Amino acid sequence: MTAFLALTTSLLWGLADFGGGLLTRRTPALTVVVASQAIAAAVLGAVVVATGGWSEAGPRLWFAVGAGLAGPAALFAFYKALALGPMGVVSPLATLSVAVPVGVALVLGERPGLVQVAGIAVAVTGVVLAAGPQLRGAPVQRRTILLTLASALGFGTLFALITEASTNVTGLFLALFVQRATSVVAGGAALYASVRRGTPALPEAGLGGTALPALAFVGLADVAANGTYALAARHGPVTVAAVLASLYPVVTALAARGFLSERLRGVQAAGAGLALLGTVLLATG
């Protein structure tokens, strides 16, 4: 069950990143983040009301608040790093986020078996390669590296916090709602400050008729991924769940290949193969 839920997480995150990437080609990244998270928060609010999730309110929701603050901060740092480039360095480095939940799990006493350790090593290597690391070119700015590492820390912190935010499914709905509501408030404040500085929130041509469904997909896929990850970490070893969930760059690369006809580089194809091998080792270990 852990492997299935974690792989579902990587599928959802990968598709959400792909959709978000397409949207940010014509709409400011900050607007995409805030709008997609607002849609997800509205849907989650309705789910919480329908399921009576408010009864699960308690101190654990502070973990959800922390995750809600970590998420937008990580996204902003990640998008800024991508803007500075090169993406072939930024994307692989961002996968270091898996180190945070795995490290926390090890500190708390989890001890993966030998086969699982091998699976973790193979899968992480595959993810880095699948992201298409840049092996040649001009030196990368120190600021780009620092922003990328900050985003990885933020994403990893989100992974670790969201697993502690609830103890049951109903509570998970409430935790995800609180997380998204916090993200909207924090992201909205940043967007407001950006507009005050003169940066437009919308493209000159407007959002367009297909933007709202796309934003909804990105926001709901992202929140669903957070939910499946929390369930995966609860049903099995966090070390396994975190690594399998981190396979999302492979999904994004394959989506770009399928929908945009982007050609996979040799290093990306090799990385996808290693990621698949690591998945098998983790699932059977």
UniProtKB/TrEMBL annotation:
GO cellular component, one term: membrane
InterPro entries, alphabetized: EamA_dom, EmrE-like
Pfam families: EamA
Family to which this protein belongs: Belongs to the EamA transporter family.
Protein name: EamA domain-containing protein
Upper classification of the organism: Bacteria, Bacillati, Actinomycetota, Actinomycetes, Kitasatosporales
TM ranges: 28-49, 61-79, 85-107, 114-132, 144-162, 169-193, 205-225, 237-260, 266-284
Annotated Gene3D superfamilies: 1.10.3730.20
Keywords: Membrane, Transmembrane, Transmembrane helix
Start and end residues of each EamA domain: 3-130, 144-283
